[in-house]
Amino acid sequence: MTTEQMKEKLGGMLTDHRYTHSLGVMETAEKMARLFGADVQKAQTAGLLHDCAKQIDRETQLAMCDKLGVPLDDLKRENTALLHAELGARLAETEFAVCDSEILGAIKYHTLGRANMTDLEKILYLADIIEPNRREFEGLKELRALCEKDLNEALLYGLELTIAHIGRKGRILHTQTMEAEAFYRNLLHKEAYHMKPLDAFEKAKKAVKVLDAKKANDIALLKVSDLTILADYFVICSANSTTQVRALADSIEEEFEKVGINPLSREGKQGLNWILLDYGDFILHIFYQETREFYGLEKLWDDAEKMDVDKIINES
């Protein structure tokens, strides 16, 4: 069956909204396949057909799964959102003449994920979340950025967003998703452990990028290695509230912990108006905006070389 024939058949099975979503996933999966060296045609087909069973009511889905011999656990039987992926893989085979096991696997796992996914499975899982018709939600911008850089990091972040969303809804999390999250968290931790250690400038740049992603204000990077033995670099930023001051500090610690780097010390000055994280060769100062203006730290280090923060943020 050609792609056009699949589109025509699928259009009669889905609402206009769901069909538009499927086209968005197809296009996004295609772009990601080109970026990460996966099979583009397989990505297109999986993206187009991933929701082919979505509009079928729960009772009919259950009857079809039983008839087609689709194995289901109790949680999948109770939740239509989980059921359609299992049935969709089988319908792609029986209704759309798809016999490629990689495509069928991508459709089957596009909702829950699993440990040790194929690249195509990862691509479809992520494309389903980030396709351009999705309504904005917290973390979507960051996930889209990761989907252009690292497939495994993006997948882990996508799984974390899914888990958080299910928790907020008060729903039961399927063990398959928990196993997937644990697998990729451990995988990335092992990869980070064996990475070449970051030098002081690379650490400081990483801090700048994390702060920018978390909406810190007025980020500055000063090279102070010629002026003091305290550190090689100072990273300075502002926050709109004491709550954001703490959140930015927590985010930095979490991201550096992923690559095996922990601060030598964390100090809270003036309550939570100023948090200092000392990483040895660079020191991070996170200020509440008014506190930063009061202390004028940058004026005290006016002779320091000011690095181009915008260039750092925009580099790949």
Structure description:
By secondary structure, the protein is an alpha+beta fold. The chain is 58% helix and 10% strand. It has 16 helices and 6 strands. The chain has helices at 3-11, 16-36, 40-49, 58-68, 74-78, 80-94, 101-108, 119-130, 140-146, 151-169, 175-193, 200-213, 242-257, 289-295, 297-300, 309-314; strands at residues 217-223, 233-239, 265-269, 274-278, 282-288, 305-306. The chain has a 6-stranded mixed β-sheet with strand order 3-4-5-2-1-6. β3 (265-269) and β4 form a beta hairpin. α3 (40-49) packs across α8. It is elongated.
How many helices? The count is 16
- What structural class results from the helix and strand content? alpha+beta
Helicity range: 55-70%
Strand content: 5-15%
Instruction: Please give the radius of gyration in angstroms.
Output: 24 Å
Total DSSP E strands: 6
Q: Please state the overall shape, judged from the principal axes of the Cα atoms.
A: elongated
Q: Write the element-wise H/E pattern from the N-terminal end onward.
A: HHHHHHHHHHHHEEHEEEHHEH
Unreliable runs: none
Largest beta-sheet details: 6 strands, mixed
Q: What is the average of the pLDDT values?
A: 91
Main sheet strand line-up? 3-4-5-2-1-6
Q: Distance N terminus to C terminus?
A: 40 Å
Quick structural overview:
With 316 residues, the protein is α+β, with helices and mostly antiparallel strands.
